[in-house]
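Reader question, answered in our methods column.
A reader sent in the components of a multi-part assembly and asked whether the whole thing could be modeled at once rather than chain by chain. We filled in our standard form and ran it. Here is what they sent:
COMPLEX SIZE: two components
ENTRIES:
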Amino acid sequence: SQTIHQWPATLVQPVGSPLSLECTVEGTSNPNLYWYRQAAGRGLQLLFYSVGIGQISSEVPQNLSASRPQDRQFILSSKKLLLSDSGFYLCAWSVRQGQSSYNSPLHFGNGTRLTVT
Amino acid sequence: AQTVTQSQPEMSVQEAETVTLSCTYDTSENNYYLFWYKQPPSRQMILVIRQEAYKQQNATENRFSVNFQKAAKSFSLKISDSQLGDTAMYFCAFSLTGANSKLTFGKGITLSVRP
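And here is the structure of the entire assembly that came back:
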């Protein structure tokens, strides 16, 4: 069966420090990968998604970046964190459907609670 | 651009009763998918139910069912025989077909089930 691992579970970082959150998927190949952020009292906002190695699409301009060095590995990074980067970050994967009209649901990791102080 | 609106921030229901969570969306497209996700206090996002827009029949999953009104762009979730474990945030989400599952989420509603 497929599993998704996301770490760390919680992180407290000072303003201006770098960030690296990692997500890996097991039990599947060629998944679509996603990074979402959930701010307090708000829904989930799509930050990045990837349909393949080295292919990253950004949905929201920001000081965060994402990379996909391997097929099932997705990394969220920042060179200098801002206070506004605090939130709950969720990694997710779905089956890549290509041109099919079938949309695979998203499967989420357990999330990372990031607090920027 | 597509939008998803959940206008009720909080709801409460007595255990064993039925509750309906509302969701509306806006799109100019004809083919799409709608989802309800549950986020319990553990923060794990769990898929509850999915509806294809081309299907007229409302989706059901055990105690969970939807009322999909395409013309009205409404997608409500009904939870029957509410259980304490249903206490969670519930998110309505929208995805275009062929969009590689990029979901647009509503702000969510906090549901509390009272014993």
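What stands out: Chain A has a mean pLDDT of 89. Chain A touches chain B at residues 32, 34, 36, 41-46, 49, 51, 59, 88, 90, 92, 94, 96-97, 99-108, 110-111, 113 (CB under 8 Å).
Send us your own complexes using the same form.
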